[in-house]
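Lab notebook, design round three. We kept the backbone fixed and only want residue identities now. Task for the bench partner: fill in a sequence for the structure below.
Input structure tokens:
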């Protein structure tokens, strides 16, 4: 852990998103922008309680979303990026011995690797401030990095304040910086006290003026040119957000491919940034992997499978499956058309077939639940066979109860198991049974009306039928 800290600016209203939510909660690959930025800050080894987010619009929703160890301050008036950082002065004073990473909360591609390399550079050069810059094909809207005849960094000019020549510059300010905390506090003080710093086109306190102030004080200011051209990208509306999604989607797919995951076609495949996938696993079309899903090696996922926060072990195959907060162990086959709901753990070499829903249940190794069944709040043993069309009756309309099925039990087709109930090991239930009482080990339970035959009933009752 270092004495360094981070301040994330997240006041943006995002009017053009036309959302009730603050802009930084908009998602790229199902992950809110602010979470991308926090993860980048954490990649700089800041330690706990070293991140402060400047909030404003949608403050409540944002604070409710942020992790416990992240501090917040509020900027009640939007008077510019310099003013936003002023709101975090008390936080900065508490971290006065180190450097601070300033990040825009709406720039998700400012990655941790770049931030770390920039810190190394900042420390090595003994700079009071280091601006992370990038050379982009379209610099419109960004602050330009201005250099003197020797190519030395001389300052940042905002587009609104730039001359025609300066507008041609393609090296831009990403909006991310490392500052020596003490130097930044001094610069903010000067910025606030001297009215000339608000004579810019926007009449705002520009954080970029802190760079100029430090330079005029004879302190060293540097730029760190990012190899990642996308570092500064943000989105103002949902169309631009979709472009960020597409960039991120392609990047994540490419990363997995280069790490040995087979993704022969990428159509309809969306993999969230924190998903892990093992080598030789195949991801097929229409598959969406969200949250912290972890997939082992040699698995086959898809087509058309959606998994959120699931763990899938080596060699498992999930076809047309929807899973949330579930675990599937080795070599198990699921689907097509299966649903795994939260709290489900399915053992090894299990077969879960079409139109099967499993919720908050454990299923032992080698068990088969092949067709059209609902298993809820149940502990199913090993080597069990659940016939077609079975249901656990787990809900009375008021309360939920559990069902237990012992090892090697055989649940006949169309059995209803009315919970709380236990079927013993190796026990059978007759097809069509409604089981309301516990079945002992090795027993057969029949809970259905005995069949009656009415001879010649059709001839008597339906004489008109040929
Ligand atoms: C700023 C930089 C510009 C850079 C660009 C990168 C300044 C003066 N300019 O531009 O050089 O190229 O970022 O995107 O800093 N924010 C607040 N409170 C405010 C104003 C902004 O918290 O009063 C936050 C925004 O929510 C956002 C970040 O600061 O997360 C950047 O704001 P934005 O308005 O996009 O920056 P610009 O001033 O356009
Ligand atoms: Ca901007």
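Proposed sequence:
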């Amino acid at each position: 852990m270092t004495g360094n800290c981070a301040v994330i600016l997240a006041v943006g209203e995002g009017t053009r998103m036309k959302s009730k939510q603050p802009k930084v909660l908009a998602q790229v690959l199902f992950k809110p922008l602010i979470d991308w930025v926090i993860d980048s800050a954490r990649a700089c080894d800041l330690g706990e309680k070293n991140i402060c987010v400047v909030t404003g619009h949608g403050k409540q929703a944002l604070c409710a979303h942020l992790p416990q160890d992240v501090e917040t301050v509020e900027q009640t008036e939007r008077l510019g990026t310099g003013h936003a950082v002023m709101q975090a002065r008390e936080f900065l004073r508490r971290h006065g011995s180190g450097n601070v990473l300033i990040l825009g909360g709406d720039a998700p591609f400012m990655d941790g690797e770049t931030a770390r390399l920039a810190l190394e550079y900042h420390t090595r050069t003994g700079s009071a401030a280091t601006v992370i810059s990038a050379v982009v094909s379209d610099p419109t809207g960004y602050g330009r990095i201005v250099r003197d005849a020797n190519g030395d960094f001389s300052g940042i000019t905002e587009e609104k304040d730039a001359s025609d020549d300066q507008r041609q510059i393609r090296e831009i300010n990403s909006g991310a910086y490392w500052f020596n905390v003490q130097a930044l506090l001094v610069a903010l003080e000067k910025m606030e006290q001297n009215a000339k710093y608000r004579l810019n086109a926007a009449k705002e306190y520009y954080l970029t003026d802190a760079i100029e102030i430090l330079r005029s004080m004879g302190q060293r200011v540097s730029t760190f040119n990012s190899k990642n051209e996308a570092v500064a990208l943000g989105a103002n509306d949902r169309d631009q957000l979709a472009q960020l999604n597409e960039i991120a989607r392609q990047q994540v797919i490419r990363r997995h491919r280069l790490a040995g995951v087979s993704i022969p076609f990428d159509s309809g495949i969306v993999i969230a940034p924190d998903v892990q996938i093992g080598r030789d696993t195949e991801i097929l079309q229409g598959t969406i992997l969200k949250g912290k899903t972890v997939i082992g090696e040699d698995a086959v996922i898809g087509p058309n499978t959606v998994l959120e926060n699931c763990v899938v072990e080596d060699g498992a195959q999930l076809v047309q499956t929807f899973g949330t907060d579930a675990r599937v162990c080795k070599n198990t086959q699921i689907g097509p058309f299966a649903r795994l709901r939260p709290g489900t753990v399915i053992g090894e070499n299990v077969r879960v077939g079409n139109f099967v829903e499993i919720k908050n249940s454990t299923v032992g190794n080698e068990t088969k639940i092949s067709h059209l069944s609902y298993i809820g709040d149940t502990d199913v043993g090993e080597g069990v066979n659940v016939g077609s069309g079975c249901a656990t009756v787990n809900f009375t309309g008021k309360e939920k109860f559990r069902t237990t099925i012992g090892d090697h039990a055989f649940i006949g087709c169309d059995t209803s198991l009315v919970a709380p109930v236990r079927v013993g090991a190796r026990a059978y239930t007759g097809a069509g049974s409604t089981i309301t009482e516990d079945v002992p080990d090795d027993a057969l339970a029949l809970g259905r009306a005995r069949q009656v035959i009415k001879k010649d009933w059709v001839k008597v009752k339906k004489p008109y039928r040929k």
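Keep this in mind before ordering anything: The chain has a mean pLDDT of 96.
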